[in-house]
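User: two proteins, same treatment. go.

Assistant:
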Amino acid sequence: MTRAALRGAAGAAALAAVLATTAVPASAHTTLTSASPAKDSTVAAPSQIVLTYADPVRLPRVVVTDGSRKQYQAGSAQAVDNKVTQAVGGTLPNGKYAVGWRVVASDGHPVEGTYTFTVQGSSGAAQPPAPSPVRTNLVSTGDSAGSSGWLWIGLIALVLAAAAGAVAWFRRSPTQD
């Protein structure tokens, strides 16, 4: 094989490796399609929060907080196919509430969000309004879902280093034997 052919083959192999490892896989992250109580709605005190997603979800986490960040969820959220149900502890007093949610989509990626609603006509005492938007910490310390980004960065760096090494190898001066 001639030297030019070897260079061409090495370049093509390096390019193919870079393209193969940097191609972004199709993502099928789910989205929240509806919520009860609905975003920005004014309702009587709900006994549960129901979130519906476009696709089945798993490992749900739902947090219901008031303006002073007091939490009102009871027990763990339950996911059945694309619906997540979270019981509310007690009767919510009048006021503004934030719902923070986090689920894992069927493609393995975590998806999260927040929204607010207002309770009016409750028999409980009024609460101070919640700051807008309320951010709740839904990520547990044992979550490793974010590490996949670092894995891709490391793989890309490795492929680029290998490609640079291949180019340097074929560009070196020919040795006389």
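Protein 2:
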Amino acid sequence: MGIIQADIFLTLDGVYQAPGGPEEDRADGFALGGWQGAYFDDESGETMGAGIARLDALLLGRRTYDIFADYWPAHGDDDPIAATFNAVPKFVVSRTPTDPSWEGTTALTDVATEVRALKDRFEEVHVIGSGNLVTTLLREGLVDRLHLILYPLVLGSGKRLFGDGTVPAAFTPVQAPRAFPKGAVSLLYERAGDPVTGVDVSQRTQ
């Protein structure tokens, strides 16, 4: 049985919208895109690249898929990230039928059934970005590992990963947090069942 890992770039106030460029996603009038670049450094890039090198299938929401399909096929195999993305099987979740243009892509419409079946076929399925899809996968209990790269800024607006309707869940660290030179932090968690609540910390004993 394989795993599904969600890889998300996130601000301190939980915004995941348009990290890569100002025009990446202007939905709802969002004008603060392109917030990741100021914090990019070699070490964070190496960590992202190592994660991509491990995946053997790519799962994306429709908006992120359209961005990737427009960019990565035009890049040659001398780019290791492009080589991986172009070679592995790709799956796009869409509410409406679609004819994917990126070679090696299959469209899915049933998250609960079709996405769950991917874990029987692949070792590491990675979801990159695709915040709406990740929220759905969390609700369905389909995210086994959550990799957040947390950036030291707040935006005050934009699409948030953990908003209204988030299903309560607990996570456990897979490795120690790793801080990068320009301030971003890598956090890797696995699902750990339901959160423990109702504990009065003042009554807690060691």
